[in-house]
Design a protein that fits this description.
This protein has helices spanning 3-61, 65-79, 82-87, 97-120, 125-205, 220-255, 274-280, 284-287, 292-295, 310-317, 364-410, 419-424, 429-439, 441-465, 478-490, 493-496, 521-541, 575-580, 598-610; strands spanning 259-264, 269-272, 297-300, 321-330, 336-347, 353-362, 474-476, 505-510, 517-519, 548-556, 561-568, 613-619, 623-631. With 637 residues, the protein is α+β, with helices and mostly antiparallel strands. It folds into four domains: 3-171, Four Helix Bundle (Hemerythrin (Met), subunit A) (Up-down Bundle); 256-362, PAS domain (Beta-Lactamase); 364-467; 473-637, Histidine kinase-like ATPase, C-terminal domain (Heat Shock Protein 90). Helix 1 (3-61) packs antiparallel against helix 2 and helix 15 (478-490) packs across helix 17 (521-541). It starts with a helix and ends in a 6-residue tail after the last strand.
Amino acid sequence: MTIRRIISVFFAFVIILLTISSVIVVFNFREFKKNKHLQNTIHLTIQDLENTTLLLDEFFVNPNKRVLLQLRLQTDSFYHSKSFESLEEFKDTFDLIIPLTAKRRDFLTVLDNFYILLEREPLRDEIMEETASLLFVISHEMKSYMSALHGQAQRRIARDNLILFASFLILQIVLSGLLLFVLIWLHKGFLGRILRMDRLAGNIAHGDYSKYLPIERNDELTGLARSFNVMQNAIREQMDNLAGERDKFSIILSSIGDAVLAVDVSGKIYIMNPVAEYLTGWKFSEAVGRSFHEIARIFNSATREPVKNSLQRVLDTGEQYELLEQKTLVCRTGEEFLIHDSAAPVFNRDGEITGAVLVFRDITDQIHLQEVMVQTEKMVSIGELAAGVAKEIAAPLTDMTQTITGVLESLSLDNDANQPSAAVADLSRAKVHTFLSNKGTLDKLLSIKESAAWVMRILEKMLMFAGNKTESKRSSDITELLDNTLELARSDYELRNMYDFRKIIIVRDYAKELPKVLCDPSGLQQVFLNIIRNGVQSMYAAKTDPPRFFLRVYKDEERRRVCVEISDNGPGMDESVRKRVFEPFFTTSQKGKGRGLGLSIAYFIITDNHDGEIEVRSTPGVGARFIMQLPYGMLEQ
């Protein structure tokens, strides 16, 4: 049976049921309307009777002409009331209407006789009471009949409503059952199979090819199901081949150590490997559909001038492009990478350009490693040279110091050994001393001696700082090492070009009775000097006036640590810089001013060589505070 025939039969049944229900509804509605009319008529009759009895009560209480006139008018109205005439229509249906009508006639007869007696002579009280009692009994009986009639009418109305509701309910049940039967049949015969096709199409759209449409019968949908299964097999085979090729391509692309990025003919990105994501700072999901210049900028490393986009050049010319010249790529976060790049066009089968591929390699670490090697060799050479120069200077400086000391002792008034020499020369020691003092010679000699001693202390610190970094650790006073580093910083040529170190305010807060720390003194001095250099450079760049260092050393007894804090009042650093301040090669200095190794070396010395901790806290515009914690109480090696 076809769907058209099923629908025709269904509508025929619906029309028949609607016709039957319409007849039932019309009939019940007429009965309902008739009973409702009866109910309204009874209500009007009760109202007329109530008005009449109220005037009677008023007349019997206070008989006068005004009330009598109103009573006569109400009696006339009650006599000609159409509501009682309407009740006559229902006497065949309701048995109480006939006795009610009779009581009405009795009521009106009593009233007529009452009015005749009133016209003849004044009535006695006994007659008035008897008439009132009789009228009260008759009106009470009429009210009882009316109440009963009203109840019967109400029950008839309720019955009609129930029949009407039941008719609609039965009709609805029949129609629902019929509709359910038709839907179940359609679902099993046609709709169910169509829905299965729809679900299968959804599964195919989501890549699930494991299910097929069953061939159950030979009808209109069977041919469609066969074609659908054939199409599914073809799609599955094609998708499996495509997925295999895509997986191979993805593995190869992810395994390449260089950054690979492909764009279509309009310059929009549609391929990007993980290395390209890292170097540009963009996830592929974010970069897809964007042009390359939106996600990265490329500059000439030497001139810092923008370089033309290699991809756009390939798209314009259709030629492969490769440039081994060093470039600088600026990624999304502002970080810079040194790169070598090459680009090539992508052609379709017809030889038309459909896009381009850019391959670029990060050579930042390679360049930095070369620079560090050169710088390290320079620093080693300078250190050896400085140590040699210091040793060479130390010997004649010692002789000079000893000579000046001898000269001063020979001119001293307290030295009796000079008396014979003065007598032979016929000189007074006091006069010679007074003469040299007035000329300032003694002060100059003392100044030379003090300067020589100051230079000797600097040489000693240079020799200590340039010593072997793997030397055995020994117990040392941290405050003494910190003060020695300050003395060394005062003679640092680079720092003297920025500030006169003697004019930098140094505030010390050293706790008393600090324990000694087992450490490499020269290593810790290098840490302190690197931090102080960084502070001086940042304060000089920010033109801090006056520059100030706050040095604090205290003991953490609970953790058994000696804590060293070096703070400055420079410009400070934001959170992004603070997190990376200990990374190798990270620097905020101008190009050529620093290699970004000072603080990373300090971190290595504190954490690896001394099992300590180092951190930095900073607020932009306030300054930076480096906190180092070194364990104490360890046995000396």
